[in-house]
Design a protein that fits this description.
The protein contains 3 helices and 19 strands. It is mainly beta. The protein has 2 domains: 2-163, Quinohemoprotein amine dehydrogenase alpha subunit, domain 2 (Lipocalin, Beta Barrel); 173-303, no CATH class. The strands form 3 sheets. The protein has an 8-stranded antiparallel β-barrel. A 5-stranded mixed beta sheet has the order 10-15-12-17-18, with no helix packed on it. A hairpin with a 4-residue loop joins strand 4 (63-74) and strand 5 (79-88). The longest helix is centred in the N-terminal third of the chain and has 16 residues, at 2-17.
Length: 309
């Protein structure tokens, strides 16, 4: 009888959750064609019956954009529609200021493990044939979904458009972290309890790399810890426009090394997002990485095999 009652309560809870899309949503998006066109997407949504309003934060290459959004949610079909969104053109290389006007069409799924929004950005009339559809997969942040924080975020909103990439000549260093393992039992335990989400893979030509971490977008108090192959090398470091600089030796006995960013907090604008610059002396990689209190964003680093003479 207890099992039946528990199942009944779960069903009621899931049904109630399906009635709205209120909260903080985060995740990735990728153009339907191509591999080097990853987006990071954040939605802050409030809902009044079928009407939906909120904020969209979009990270793409060296751009960050934040603007208000409007749309509708059908609780019967669980479909969310957000209209007339300026999305950076996925094929842009040197000119990130090219926008595609697109609609966000998502399907809301509710499960015990968490809620998701999956679907596509689809080009509006005049953009359908030049802008590829962009597939997205977003998750609801349970820790940041209370009504007060959403209303505060909307109240304090200011539209933002930034194009920024630090160069080797103008990088300001906040702190330089030496490569030695750190004993922090709380952070180590929490790291093992969270899922590792691989968000990108890069290839380097050397056994050591230089890594700089910056806050990605508006500086909002994000703090991180850094793990390489499961070992803690930097703990409780605050992100800003000045770099957290690390010189890391890779484990050459491994086929791939895994560099993970653990979120010590979410700042004032969840989730915890960072711009990571990785250099092997010959090539520099720009990686935008996102972590929250359930998952640690990570990248795989593969050592390029020397060509046979």
């Amino acid at each position: 009888m207890k099992k039946i009652f528990a199942t009944f309560l779960i069903c009621i809870s899931l049904s109630a959750g399906a009635q709205n899309v209120i909260g903080y949503w985060y995740g990735t998006a990728n153009a339907e064609f191509g591999t080097s066109n990853n987006y990071l997407v954040e939605l802050i949504l409030k809902q009044n019956q079928t009407s939906v309003q909120g904020i969209m934060n979009c990270y793409f290459k060296n751009t960050f954009r934040s603007y208000k959004i409007n749309g509708s949610y059908n609780s019967m079909t669980r479909e969310l529609l957000l209209v007339n969104l300026p999305i950076p053109y996925s094929g842009a290389s040197n000119n990130p200021e090219i926008d595609c006007m697109m609609d966000f069409k998502g399907k809301h799924m509710v499960a015990v493990a968490g809620s998701s929004l999956t679907g596509r950005f689809i080009g509006r009339e005049g953009y359908k044939y030049t802008c590829p559809e962009i597939v997205f997969d977003l998750r609801l942040n349970k820790e940041a979904g209370n009504q007060d924080s959403i209303l505060l975020a909307l109240q304090n909103f200011k539209e933002t458009y930034q194009v920024w990439t630090p160069t080797a000549t103008d990088t300001l260093v906040e702190a330089t972290v030496q490569q030695r393992t750190i004993q922090n039992f709380v952070v180590n335990r929490q790291f093992t309890e969270r899922e590792i989400e691989i968000q990108q893979e890069i290839e380097v030509t050397t056994d050591s790399i230089l890594v700089d971490f910056y806050d990605n977008g508006e500086v909002d108090g994000d703090s991180i810890s850094v793990f390489l192959n499961g070992k803690l090398y930097g703990a409780n470091m605050r992100l800003s426009t000045r770099a957290i600089h690390m010189n890391l030796m890779l484990d050459t006995s491994l086929e791939v090394n895994t560099l993970a960013m653990f979120a010590n907090n979410l700042g004032t604008i969840p989730p915890n997002t960072a711009l990571m610059l990785i250099s092997d002396g010959k090539k520099r990689h720009e990686v935008r990485i996102s972590s929250n209190l359930d998952k640690s964003g990570a990248i795989r680093i593969r050592r390029k095999k020397p060509q046979a003479q």
